Amino acid sequence: MLFSLAFLHFSALAQRPIPDFSSSSIKCEGRSITFTNTSMPVSGIITRTHWSFGTGAPRDTAVGSTVSYTYNTYGNYFVQLTVTNSSGFDSSIVRGIYVDPTPIAVMKTDVPCFPDQVLLEDNSNIADGSITERLWSIDGGTGSMQTYFYIPSAVGSYSATLVVTSDKGCVNTVTENIEISLKPTITFSPVDPFTLCDGDSVTLTVSGANDYQWSNGSNDSKNTVNTSGKYILEGFNTPSCSALDSIEVISVPKPIADAGEDVTIKIGEKIILNGSGATNYSWTPAESLDDNFSATPEAAPIVTTSYILTVVDANGCTDRDTVLISVDPSISVSIHNMITPNNDGMNDKWDLSNVPGIEDATIHVFNRWGWEVFKTDNYKHNWRGTYKEEPLPDGSYLYLIDFKNNSNKLKGALEILRNTQK
Question: In which residue ranges of the chain is pLDDT below 50?
Answer without folding.
Answer: 2-10
